[in-house]
């Protein structure tokens, strides 16, 4: 089976969608499929390049914002798109943008089956342009309908979570909707995470962006009884870094924090090592399709505290209410952090339960389901 992945960029570090595409294509190849990628080039000239390479598109006015959020748009070169689509048995669209729209349109014209993965809610975009726009229902509804035009060229769409499936059903997407997690590598013998020494290492990973809401964790320190015993580490990079550093310095000068918050970008191995030492993992996102960073921490036995809202699918990973707080609520987040610090034996017990729960999201099972989805699309 020849599968073409269409994605604006598969090689951008710090971008969850790109990371998911790299993992999925690698696993599909290991399963015996012939997989090629239609994408813009790898910014690292020494790194792996796509099979069908497109030039980077520089977006007027918004390019600095796009760069700060670790995203790249590709130029939609018709000649290259046609060559790539002609080669494939099935075309997999990873996004709802111009590149995918053209690839899907041409595939439909020549009778090639298309499938897609819904990685991105419209709110993900607007929170990073003007935060208030993420709450404007009318503009998000219009944008989702625009996304629908792209995905309606697909016979089948992968929904990473049930929340996504319900959201797309509400907007009357025509494709068959399959709930298939993006998945993670699971540990064969899950173990509890047992960090013993102070300060308590509390980790948050992901882009420093409005949609991820890292400032809520910093604000929570003003309400915590144990803030002076906490070392915060934000694993990532992004447009809010300067603002986060200023807030961290303010908390240090005020005496709320004794340890300067660390902001470091990690590769996959570094992130695993960081999670293995973490006392808690915090997920503050205001909108999230799945939240693999949180899942990867849980796999290492880290007890999470996860924001809860109608468009935050990550809350499905919580085992009970002690790992949930209302989104953007710094005071309740502080209460949850304090509770886990003050109940170390319970944190250690739940650490093992969380590590076991990650087995429900085995990437090998996700790949099997994805292959079945391809077969269904080709059989039509």
How many β-strands, per DSSP?
Answer: 15
Give the H and E element order: EHEEEHEHEHEHHEHEEHEHEHEHEEHHH
The biggest beta sheet is recorded as: 7 strands, parallel
Mean pLDDT across the residues is 94
End-to-end separation in angstroms reads 15 Å
> What share of the residues does DSSP label as strand, in percent?
15-25%
Helix content: 40-55%
Low-confidence stretches: none
Shape: globular
Q: How much is the radius of gyration in Å?
A: 21 Å
Number of helices: 14
Task: Label the structural class.
Answer: alpha/beta
Query: In which order are the strands of the major sheet placed?
Result: 3-2-1-6-7-8-9
Structure description:
There is one protein chain. With 380 residues, the protein is α/β, with parallel strands linked by helices. It contains 14 helices and 15 strands. It has helices at 16-30, 63-68, 78-87, 98-110, 122-129, 137-151, 162-170, 215-220, 241-254, 268-277, 292-299, 330-342, 344-357, 363-379; strands at 2-6, 34-40, 52-54, 56-57, 73-74, 90-93, 114-117, 156-159, 176-179, 200-205, 230-235, 262-264, 280-283, 303-308, 324-326. The strands form three sheets. It has a seven-stranded parallel sheet with strand order 3-2-1-6-7-8-9, with helices on both faces. Strands 12-11-10-13-14-15 form a six-stranded parallel sheet, sandwiched between helices. Helix 3 crosses helix 4. The longest helix is centred in the C-terminal third of the chain and has 17 residues, at 363-379. It starts with a strand and ends with a helix. 49% of the residues are buried.
